[in-house]
Amino acid sequence: MTAATARQLHDGCAAITESAIAAGCRFFAGYPISPFTGLLENMSRRLPEAGGHCLNAESEIEAVNMALGASAAGARAATGSCGQGLALMQEAIAELALNELPLVIFNMARNQQDYFQATRGGGWGDYRTLTLAPKDVPEAVEHTQLLFHLADRYRAPVMLYGDPLIAQTHVSVDVAARDFGPLPAKDWALDGSSGGTGHSRQIWTWAMGKATEPGPGPDGHWRAVAAKFDEIAGTEARSETYRADDAETLVVAFGSAALFVEHVVDELRADGHRVGLFRPVTLWPFPGDDLAAATRNASRVLVFELNAGQMLDDVRQFTHDRGAVRFIGGVSIHASGLSFGPLLDVGPIRERILEAAA
Amino acid sequence: MRDEVIITGIGGQGIQLMAKTLALAATRGGLQAMLTSDVGGEMRGGPSQASVVVDDEGLRALPILPSTKSVVVMHHKHSAFALGRLVPGGLALVNSSVADPAAIRDAEVIAVPALEIARAADAPNAAGFVMLGAYATLRLIVDVAALGEAMRELVPPYRAQHVAANLRALEAGAGTVLAA
Q1: Which fold has domain B3-179?
Q2: Domain ranges in chain B?
Q3: Which residue has the higher pLDDT, A198 or A294?
């Protein structure tokens, strides 16, 4: 651990920027889109001061491929957008996964409608995207540093699933560099040596290798990549429960929505209701074993998410008794289209839980 | 120690700067603060609202407050959300130069003719800081000097000519409450 910096008032985008720099991020590329723009603005101001580079690309496709290049050269690199821009980046994300290149991707999402995009992905091949969903700004700061570590450890693209509240809420935070332990040397990174020098390296999705040094080829390589994602699924799932031990009604929620549910759980407990919260901290790998254990004694499992029912699929897959699962979330969008609508509020969440638990 | 306030008004009244000044002053004073903003797309006249929660260590708060101990009403337009969240008997500090204090029920209503006070202090653009000075003096979370320092830090260099007037407005707002 290094010494803590002085406490600052930062919005989420500024706090994430400071955390990324503390983690050693030195390359960022992005294309403005609300509410991601704040992150790009902060990176463009702070990265050069930290000896890094930030590029305002001409499109999301260009941004992610610039970041891919920086990563291939061994830099700690990142990009981001909201779900709309990440849709354009899917091909490059698949290439990163199959090339085994680390990258941190910040989805400063407009809502929770990108769950499938984050956890299933839209690229080709057998890969998944390790995704952390912080519930507030302090956790986003922590997750940012963890993600840079996990990306390097597994040589894979990883994602932070943020939202407008996390992007724009100001909080008093200390950002200090955290040490997650040693990482293997990046002996795979390209160093600029070209063909014919005897020192050139190859990063290629198909892993055919060079004429003089044949690689494993697509069959061997893609099996190995798939096995790596199996390993991640078995080791990196994270979850949190809140007042869940004796809960008859367990609410499952992620990100900012879970913060609101936590508050409602306190209110309902004060009124004598046995309600608790289960929060997947990683959306992929989904903490299925933890959910199965947490739902063993629950009569009702209520899924609250701000979309038409996406995490619902995962909850149904892992809940102890699938018949106990009810969906109490829904699509709720701010009039601007850029943020959450009125469903993300204590009153409506409380009503929906009480109605489902009646 | 915990304090909560929703500041509500329209674009152009300095709502966001007021909230940020309060949150930064609290942070600089060793407290924890959380500030959430909600603004319309318009440069002038659209909804502008901000909530600030201040606490000692371990601040826990929602970015959309389910309830608040106090509201500062700079303009009545768009104020329904903030007033609807005010706890019964909570503090409603009302800019009576614009909004009607009599329209607010079930609250400890304090009317501050902020525009007139700001003009008298030769700070006609700083009615928001009059309200902030009054608010801080009523709530005692941060003092006016700390607000002044935070404001000085937040005002960009090309607006530095307004710092002195803003300081006068903060002092005048505090003075109004102390005199009452």
Answers
A1: Pyruvate-ferredoxin Oxidoreductase; domain 3 (3.40.920)
A2: 3-179
A3: A294
Q: How many domains does chain A have?
A: 2
Contact A170 B62 (CB under 8 A): no
Residue A205 resides in a domain: no
Q: What is the CATH number of the domain that holds A86?
A: 3.40.50.970
Give the pLDDT confidence score for residue A3 in this predicted structure. 39
Among the partner residues A9, A169, A336, nearest to B63 by beta-carbon distance:
A169
Is A151 found in the same domain as A269? no
Question: Do A155 and A18 fall into the same domain?
Answer: yes
**Order of strands across the sheet with A130-132?**
A53-56, A27-30, A77-81, A103-108, A157-162, A130-132, A282-284
Question: Of B31, B64, B154, which to mutate for an interface test with A (greatest number of A Cβ within 10 Å)?
Answer: B64
B35/A169 CB distance under 8 A: yes
Taking residues B161-180, what's their average pLDDT? 95
Rounded to an integer, the average pLDDT of B62-81 is: 96
pLDDT single digits (tens) A106-130: 999 999 999 999 999 889 999 999 9
3-state secondary structure of A28: strand
Tell me the HSE value of A55 on the side-chain side, using a 13 A CA sphere: 18
- Residue B35's closest chain A neighbor by CA? A170
Please count the other Cβ atoms lying within 10 Å of the Cβ belonging to residue A70.
Answer: 24
* Final residue belonging to a domain, choices A156, A173, A190: A173
The pLDDT value recorded for residue B101 is 96
Pick the residue from chain B with its C-alpha nearest to A342. B64
pLDDT at position A2 is 39
- Check B36 against A169: CB less than 8 A apart: yes
Name every residue in A having a CB less than 8 A away from some CB of B.
Answer: 7-9, 136, 165, 168-172, 256, 259-260, 263, 336, 344-347
Crossing angle of helices B144-154 and B15-28, in 10° steps, is 110
Cβ distance B34 to A169 less than 8 Å, yes or no, reads: yes
> A150, A173, A196: which is the final residue of a domain?
A173
Chain A residues inside the 8 Å CB shell of B80: none
**Do residue A344 and residue B64 have CB atoms under 8 angstroms apart?**
yes
Residue A312 · residue A280 · CB < 8 Å? no
Of B20, B27, B64, nearest to A172 by CB-CB distance is B27
Q: A170 and B35: CB-CB below 8 Å?
A: yes
DSSP H or E run through A301 = strand A300-303
For residue A345, the chain B residues in CB contact (below 8 A) are 64, 66
- For the residues A70-89, what does the mean pLDDT come to? 98
CA B9, B14, B19, B20 torsion-angle sign: positive
Which range of residues forms the domain containing residue A46?
8-173
CATH number at residue A287: 3.40.50.920
Other beta carbons within 10 angstroms of residue B143's beta carbon come to: 16
* ipTM above threshold 0.90: yes
Cβ atoms of A280 and A252 within 8 Å: the answer is: yes
